[in-house]
Amino acid sequence: MKLLTFVKEALEGRKLATAGAIWLLIIVVAGIAAPLIAPFDPLEIDPIARLSEPGTPYLFGTDHFGRDTFSRAVYGARMALIIGIGSVMVALLCGGLVGMLSGYFTGLGHVLMRMVDVLMAFPALLLALVLMTVLERSVFNTILVIGIVYATTTARILFGMMLKLKNEVFIDAARCSGAGHLSLLFRHILPNLLSPILVQATFIFAFAQLQAAALDFLGLGLPPEVPSWGNMLAEERIYITRAPWLLIFPGVLIILSVFSMNLLGDALRDRIDPRFKDDIAGV
Amino acid sequence: MSNTPLLDVKALNVVFRTKSSGKLLATNRNHAVKNVSFSVHAGEVLSLVGESGCGKTTIGRILTGLESAESGTANFQGDNILGLSNAGFRPLRKHIQMIFQDPYASLNPRLTIEKILSEPLFIHKLVRNRVEARTRMAAMLKQVGLDPDALKRYPHEFSGGQRQRIGIARVMLVSPRIIIADEAVSALDVSIQAQVLNLLKKLQRSSGVAMLFISHDLAVVRHISDRIAVMYQGEIVELNDKQQIFENPQHEYTRLLLSSIPQVKARSTP
Amino acid sequence: MIAYTFKRLLTLVPTLLAASVLVFLFIHLIPGDPAAILLGDTATPEEILALTRELGLDRPLWQQYVLWFKNVLSGDLGRSLFFDTPVLQVIADGAETSILLALLTMFWIVILGIPIGIVSASYKGTWIDQVTSGFAMLFASIPTFWLGLYLILIFSVGLGWLPSSGFPSVSDEGGWTNMRYLILPSLTLAAPNAALIIRLVRSSMLDVSREDHVRTARSKGLHPARVAIKHVFRNALIAVAAAFGFTFAALISEAVVTETVFSLPGIGRLVVQSILRRDYPVIQGVILIIVVLYMFVNLLVDLAYAWLDPRVSLS
Amino acid sequence: MRYVTALTLGSRMISPVSDNQPLLRVENLCIAIQNAGQLQPVVRDLSFEVQASQTLGIVGESGSGKSLTVLAIMGLLSGSPVRVTSGKVWFDGKDLLQLSDAERRSIMGDGMSMIFQEPMTSLNPVYKIGDQIMEGIRHHQHCSAKEARTRALQLLEKVKIPDASTRIDHYPHQLSGGQRQRVMIAMALACDPLLLIADEPTTALDVTVQKEVLDLIAEIQQDTGTAIILISHDLGVIAQTCNFVAVMYCGEIVESSTTEKLFQRLGHPYTRGLIESIPPLHSDVEWLNAIPGQVPALNALPVGCSYQPRCSHAQAQCRQNPPVALLDDEHIVRCHFAQQLQGRAS
Fold first, then answer.
1. What residues 163-192 of chain A have any CB closer than 8 A to a CB of chain B?
2. What is the domain extent for residue A25?
3. DSSP letter string over C15-28?
4. CB-based contacts of D122: which residues, under 8 Å, 6+ apart?
5. For an interface test with C, which of B18, B21, B25 has the most C Cβ atoms less than 10 Å from its Cβ?
6. For each successive 10 residues of chain C (315 residues), what is the average pLDDT?
7. For residues D194-211, b (16+ Cβ closer than 10 Å) or e, as one string?
8. Rounded to whole angstroms, how far apart are CA atoms D34 and A179?
9. Is A170's CB within 8 Å of B94's CB?
10. Which residue of A has its CA nearest to C203?
């Protein structure tokens, strides 16, 4: 509930970011209610209507198999949500936990952070590519790989924030009141980290979309039959001149969603504790 | 005043090690507190006074278990409290409490005053339930000059002086034996500082709690203490009754400090 | 400064060793017999046995690592399965394209990112700022390959101004005019990164402009432009320099995509093709080299940082 | 009409027939802060004068508007949500508020310069201190780098930086807090200003260092005859350094006089309250005579006298704007009961 008021306050007076938030809401609704909204099965092939232009009954036209682009785009929204939320969860659960604990228990923490440094020596997409080489192409693996890539930065960020928070006077005060480690970590420190974590999650969500699209494009992401915006672009790229709508619709959807998420993240970041602002690597 | 002191610090040494940037493995050693000894008796106010970097704050943090010492002992009611683990120190926290300098930083911005104040009550099992806790907290807030309504509010809704009163309430709620007050009034405006000083003095008198009052301000120190220890570069250079310190300073540094303070010479006279 | 450089170099060693272990283990992560993987599908059992002996695959893992590391130090990264030439050779063939692409991209990033960022910060809150920082964020939100495809569509297919794919070496016919092949790819690659630099320059300058020493500079009666450049931008540059390490990493990542879109014979496309061809020795070699390069860039960034901030180098 | 201004508060009374022009004359200065679409006044109808080679101390607690006043005089409010809404600031014959930005800048750092509170952050960390001192000199005097450096070296020696010829090439972080404040003073003196504004110059310093810096400022004033405005929350600092004092509360000057007279006959209950809030150094008192309550918020200023809710002498009359009372020709108090209360113990 507090996070919701935090978001509401951050959006106050920021028209573009509010528009972004509304767009994201539409994506969320479309993703959840995809079967109700999509007029066709995203995998259904209509051989006669291959590469038909936008109109009726195919709102966004069809691809080279004759599949309805609009329906695929709506299911793509669902996939975007799954990838985004999944990656954020993996990044926060792995990276967030490692970073927080490392920052709190600094003895072990510095060793853990050195290991994170080693992983960070691999540029993000390259690390994802290498991991995908070893793994099968699947939705789960794509989420895992993107999540791990951003877990490293998340660990770093939370480590830094924890070091700052741990030296706060009110933490000393809580210790003097007799609070133990668990109480310090979860009652006193974590609530102060929630809004910066939310901001970080917003940016991870945005980046994950771009990474997933890039992986799809390189043929190393989601399985080709999965209706995702990235796959739609990857499969239809050769029709860019013959059927430009095939690339415009999914492309614009990705851009709008990432842009909205970045706008939202930016608006939220302006509201968090200024000490944490520089820690969060966003746009 | 009984013969055995409540808190007896002997030969305390603190060394901070920081990584030296020039050499690879070398560390810089900063001997922050050198061979410091003093004692605080029950019901007494002892002040540590000195300029920034003299080690006074470090001593306060050591005695509340927030930092560790290199060597020395600190006997509280006969038992050495140095070198205790976080858990080992916990039972002592009911008896040794701390007031912090910055009223804006010492209250968790995410917690209501009720949560902040009730925490030590529950940890030290001083109350059985919320209702009892609330009664205790409301009474204490009245004592420090705040409305019991404050419980429902967050720290940012209060002014600096009010927050410091809340900090004092948190400390007094557990009825400690000794309070370590680290620059407790330094961050406050002159008129608020006077209010809080009066409050501290009143509570100290009425409860009989001992106090280690850490400050850079000699005038404030004179007002509140029984005895004063003057610190310079990690050492206590002079420790005496306050009358002696002010009227008959022995150490050169004490004299320098006293002569450096700008004063309002003319007083309000008819 | 020399002592500082030396110290930074030394701290790199453990990270580099640990990273090399990860790269080494990569082959072992792939399901199957490493020797069979390294030789590909066509290998005979005899060949596999021979390689097993040669690489010591029958020995404990740490001995294999030592052997591998020795080979790496002597420049032997193994043989490519696809080209059947030394991996180092394969990588060297792609180096020219990638290095020229990186340099040209860096050029765009610096000449676009920094001035626009300064303008955006100087006109904070005005429509100029809103437009520039809005567009910067928009460009940071566009998938690299999508931008590349549309640049091709407009400037190559539509207008016919620039070539759409490939890159003949500058030592081939055409000489340095062949750089025109890299204009679209470098712009594609620069767009999101320049956007990030714009936003970073802007926010760092706004942070610095709130610092006390800027007020001191203004109190001297200096011209606002001089305050903005000499005091605000100069100090903001410290944060911007630190970010160039991340920019380089992003560049490598996005170069993989860009080189694929524009069919450039560079290292980035080599990675993708090698993955699709299951040419594991090449993948391993490229990754090792990129990691070393990335660390080297980070070292340079650290040194630039220390050079820009006397508090670091002189403390 | 001239006589009306004479009754506004001044560090010195503006006599109707005064012929020697003050160096700085602030008339009815009002400053407001832009807050959620509306202007909240923070400094109200402020008037005072500074004569050449005078030291005026402005004392007040946080929120009294003392820093904003000097920032407005200096011209450093631009770019913040705070602005001057009305009034005049006459300096050296010109109304500063009517000047163009360029004209204003030609005075900043030249005829008028400023020292700030935080010596640790007020110097640019990436430039050598010598270069930072030279920057202002070269800007205003258009001299060669060599001449500027010679001048910078002289200045560093003047502010008693030991080993100045080496220190000139040091970076700020290599200096202690006290030394940095000396560098700030050197920088402010670079172009021989007519007026030096010091905003809490010693608040961040230890008391022994504070004494050295205050002695230095006093010495410089003796030597150069520069007029000084010293802002402080510490009455002791003001009493020891300044020959005129203005006490500010809630954006108004409530009392002003020569230092000697002010402390002899405290006119305003607030001034008295402030002094009685400070524990005495050379005697013991059981309880401090603290001012009750707290400084009102800007958006909830009381009607009439702004001190009235905290004042032990307040009466119904105090809910009207207090008149300006002249205790004598140089001692001015903004209180309904100035005459009755003065000297009486509270």
1. 168-170, 172-181, 183, 187-188, 191-192
2. 2-39+68-276
3. HHHHHHHHHHHHHH
4. C212, C213, C215, C216, D116, D180, D184
5. B21
6. 80 86 83 76 81 78 85 85 87 90 93 94 90 92 92 86 81 78 92 92 92 94 93 92 84 90 91 85 89 88 88 71
7. bbbbbbbbbebbbbebbb
8. 43
9. no
10. A278
Asked if the Cβ–Cβ distance from B24 to C10 is below 8 Å, we say yes
* Number of CB atoms found within 10 A of residue A52's CB: 18
Cα(D45)–Cα(D48) distance, integer angstroms? 10
- Which architecture characterizes domain B1-95+179-260 according to CATH? 3-Layer(aba) Sandwich (3.40)
Indicate whether A229 belongs to any domain.
yes
Q: Do C315 and B24 touch (CB under 8 A)?
A: no
The shortest C-alpha distance from B90 to chain D (Å) reads 35
What does pTM read for this prediction? 0.87
Look up residue A43 and give its amino acid: L
Residue by residue, pLDDT tens for chain B (270 residues) are 457 899 999 999 999 887 655 445 556 788 899 999 999 999 999 999 999 889 999 999 999 999 989 999 999 998 999 988 888 899 999 999 999 999 889 999 999 999 999 999 999 999 999 999 999 999 999 999 999 999 999 999 999 999 999 999 999 999 999 999 999 999 899 999 999 999 999 999 999 999 999 999 999 999 999 999 999 999 999 999 999 999 999 999 999 999 999 887 654 443
Q: Note whether A255 contacts C: Cβ–Cβ < 8 A.
A: yes
Q: How many domains does one find in chain A?
A: 1
CATH number at residue A116: 1.10.3720.10
Q: Does C42 touch chain D (CB under 8 A)?
A: no
- For residues D21 and D1, the answer to whether their CB atoms sit within 8 Å is no
Longest dimension (CA), chain A: 76
The answer to whether the Cβ–Cβ distance between A188 and B111 falls below 8 Å is yes
Handedness of CA B104, A184, B114, B172 (dihedral sign): negative
From chain C, pick out residues whose CB is under 8 angstroms from the CB of A123.
249-250, 252-253, 290, 294
Is A201 among the domain residues?
Answer: yes
Evaluate whether residue A237 is within a structural domain: yes
Name residues 212-231 of chain A within 8 A of C (Cβ): 213-214, 217-220, 230
Q: Which residues of chain D have pLDDT under 70?
A: 1-20, 341-346
Hunting for tokens 């010598």 — which residue is that? Answer: D130
To 5 degrees, how large is the angle CA B27–CA B33–CA B39?
Answer: 155
DSSP C28-52: HHSSS-HHHHHH-TT--HHHHHHHH
Domain boundaries, chain D: 1-111+193-270+322-346, 116-190
Confidence at residue B268, expressed as pLDDT on a 0 to 100 scale: 43
Q: In this complex, which chains have at least 3 CB pairs below 8 Å with chain C?
A: A, B, D
Q: ipTM score of the complex?
A: 0.85
Residue A163 included in any domain? yes
Cβ neighbors of A99 (< 8 A, separation 6 or more) are A116, A154, A155, A156, A157, A158, A159, A161, A162
Indicate which of B116, B119, B182 best probes the interface with A, i.e. most A CBs within 10 Å of its own CB.
B119
Among C213, C229, C237, C314, which would you mutate to test the D interface (most chain D Cβ atoms within 10 Å of its Cβ)? C213
Chain D CB within 8 Å of residue C53 CB: no
Burial grade of A79 (CB within 10 A; 0-12, 13-18, 19 or more): buried
Return residue ranges of chain B for CATH 3.40.50.300: 1-95+179-260
Each residue of C40-50: pLDDT tens digit? Answer: 777 788 888 88
Q: Within a 13 Å sphere around the CA of C7, how many CA atoms are in the beta-carbon half?
A: 17
CATH superfamily placement of domain D1-111+193-270+322-346 = P-loop containing nucleotide triphosphate hydrolases (3.40.50.300)
Q: Could you give all domains of chain C from N- to C-terminal order, each with its CATH number?
A: 95-281 (1.10.3720.10)
